[in-house]
Amino acid sequence: MKRVMGAALCALLAGGIAHANAETKLTIATVNNGDMIRMQKLTDDFTSKNPDISLEWVTLEENTLRQRVTTDIATKGGQYDVMTIGTYEVPIWAEKGWLAPLDKLGSDYDVDDIMPAIRSAVSKDDALYAAPFYGESSMMMYRKDLFDAAGIKIDGRLTWDQTLEIAKKLHKPDEGVYGICLRGKAGWGENMALITTMGNAYGARLFDEKWNPTFDSAEWKAALDMYTNILGNYGPPGATSNGFNENLSLFNSGKCGMWIDATVAASFVTNPKESKVADKVGFTEAPCAATCTGANWLWAWNLGIPMGSQKVEAAQKFIAWATSKNYLELVASKEGWANVPPGTRMSLYQNPKYLEAAPFADETLLAIDSADPINSTMQPKPYVGVQFAAIPEFQGIGTTVGQQFSAALAGQMTVDQALAAAQSGTDRTMRKAGYY
Amino acid sequence: MENKQSPLGYISFSIFAWIVGLLIFFPIFWMVLTSFKTELEAVSIPPSFISFDWTLENYAEVQERSNYFKFAMNSIILAVGSTLVGLVFAVTCAWAMAFNPTKRTKDALLWMLSTKMMPPVGVLVPIYLVFRDWGLLDTRFGLIMVLFLINLPIMVWMLYTYFKEIPTDILEAARMDGATLPKEIIFVLLPMAVPGIASTMLLNVILAWNEAFWTLNLTTSDAAPLTAFIASYSSPEGLFWAKLSAASTLAVAPILVIGWFSQKQLVRGLTFGAVK
C-alpha cells in the first residue's frame, strides 16, 4: 500500500513538474483602448502557436497603469512580464537600465519596417528597448460640409492665424456649432501635449541648451495668446474640462467645426456607429506658425520587458507576435483593415487594402513621418521628445504648467501671469533637481 | 418635554429630505441608465432619459472581457476578511480604552485617527518593498492585512463610543460572579454591544469594498477585487462611458443590496449615543 501511495505521489509530483515546465505564465499590463482590447481577444492565436505560454491580462486606466508599472519597475517588484509604456517612459527607463533590450524578436520580425520616427523614440544606441504597438501624431479633423457652406478651401498647410480666421467663420454657438475644439483639461498628457506643439510651431522650446526653462520668451507668449484666444473665443463653453474623450464626443455629435488632436481619433470620427458626422470629416496636417517643425506630436504605446524578468524569452516571443506584420494581417482578417493598429509599420501604409479602408491613412503617415523627437524645435534643445521632455521631472512640471495655462484659458489669470508662474515654478524644480 | 412639529413643518421637512435623497441617488440612477445606452447615446447632448434604444450589449461585452465573479469573490473575501480580523483587534482595543482608560487614552485615540489623515501614496514605496520581500504582492492575505490596518482606527473609535455607553457595573458584576476576562468580553460585553458591532462591521465592509488605492497598487490579477475590474474600463482614447457604467453597476450591486437590507442597523449604529 505504501509503495502504491509512493508511486502515486511521485507520479503526481512528476506531473506537476512537467506541467510547470509546460506553461510559462506571462502577466501583461496594458491600457484600455480599442486596439489593446482587440489584442486580448486574439490571445488564442498566440497561445495556439505557443502552447507552453499562457497570458494573463491586467488592464488599467492610463494614469493608474503609469503609477502601477512605475512603482513595480522602480522597486523590481516583478509583478509584470510585459508592460505597456509610452514614448515618454521608454528613453528614461532605458537610460536607467530598467528595460531589457529586445534582441530576440526573430529573423522575420523586420525591424526596419518600423517607422523611423517611432523607432528612434523607443531605441537607445540603436537597440530597441520597447516595440511599438500603435503610434500616433496629431492632425486637424474638420467638417467638410461646414467648410463648403462657408466657402473655405484648404490650400496647403494652414497657419494658426488662418485657423483662427476659419474658426471665426465657423463659430455659430446659437446653432450648436463651435469653431474649434481643442484640449483644455490640465495635464502633461492633456492640454500640454497640444500647447507644446503650438509652442514649437511658434519657435518656442521647453528648455534651452543649459536646461533653463524658456516660458518667459516672446515665442511662448505668442503661442499662449493664440491658444487662449482661439479656444476661449471660438471654442465650446467649459473648454477647460475637455480632454480627448470630451472633444471626441463633441465632434461626433457635430458640435465642432475643427478639432486638432491625435491621429487615432480619425478611426472614431469616421465610424458611423460612433459618429453622427462620419461621412463629413476631412483631414489635414496640424497648423504651423513661424515653423512647421514640431507642430504635431509623436506618441506610441509600446510593449517592453522589465529588466530582471525571469521570462524574457517568452515575453520577447509575445512582443514579436503582437507587434509583427503578421499580427496586422490577423486583425484585418478578423476585424477588417480599418481596425488594424496604426502608425507603427511602413508596410501598412503601402497596403492598398488598408489605404482603401482608412481614408485618413495618408494624413496619418504624413503626420507621423514629419514628427521627430530629436529635432522638434526651431532652436537647439537638450531633450528628446516633441510634446514632452523625456526627463523624470517633466510629468510634474507639465502638470503644473498645464494647470497655469488652463487657468489662463479660464480667465483666472492673464497669459503673462501664467507664463511667469510657469517660468518660476519650472526654474525652481530644475534647480532643485540639480540641472544647474 | 414633548417636541411637537406643525404639519407644515413636517411636510416641508419631508419634501426637503426627499430632494436631498433624490440628489444623492441621482448619480447611481444615471449610472444604471447609462449602462443600457450605446456609447454614442451615452455622450449625446442633450442626454436622453428614457427615449433611447435600450441595449444589454455593454453587459455582454463586460462579461465577455472580464471574469466578473473572480473579481467579486476577491472583493467579498477582502472586505469580510479584513473586517473579521479587524474586529478581533478593535474589540479588545476598545474594551481597554473604554473600561480601563489611562491619562493618555484620548491622545492615543486621536493619534490613531490622525494616521487616516496621511496620504497613502506617501508610504506606497515602503509598503510595496515590504510586500515584495515578504512575497505578499497580489495575495489576498497581504491585502486583508493592509485593509484591516487602514480601517482599524475607525473600528476602534466606533466601538469605543458604543462601549462607553455600557455601564461598568454590569461588567463588574460579571467579574464578581467569577467571569474571566475573555468570558466577560464574549458573554457579557459583546451581546450588549451587538448593534454597535453590527454597524461597525457594515461600515468596515463598505470601506474595504470601496478602497481603491491599495487594492489597485498591490494586486495584479490573483487578488484583484472589483475596484481593479472598474479601473479596467476607463479609457484615455475612445468612448467608454456606457461600458464603464455597466461595469460599475455590476460592481456596486452587491454592496447596494447589502446596504439596502441592513440600512436600519447601519443608521441605528451610526446614530447610537448621538442623541441623549
From TrEMBL, chain A:
> Record's InterPro entries?
Bact_solute-bd_prot1, SBP
Which UniProt keywords are listed?
A: Signal
The Swiss-Prot or TrEMBL record describes its family as follows: Belongs to the bacterial solute-binding protein 1 family.
This chain's source organism reads Thalassospira profundimaris
As for subcellular location, the record says:
Periplasm
| One GO cellular component term | periplasmic space
Q: What's the protein name?
A: Sugar ABC transporter substrate-binding protein
Signal sequence span per UniProt? 1-20
From TrEMBL, chain B:
Indicate the principal place this protein occupies in or around the cell.
membrane
PROSITE patterns with a match to the protein in the record: ABC_TM1 (PS50928)
Q: Which Gene3D superfamilies match?
A: MetI-like
Question: What is the membrane topology here?
Answer: Multi-pass membrane protein
Ranges for the ABC transmembrane type-1 domain?
A: 72-262
UniProt keyword Membrane, yes or no? yes
Recorded protein name is Mannitol ABC transporter permease
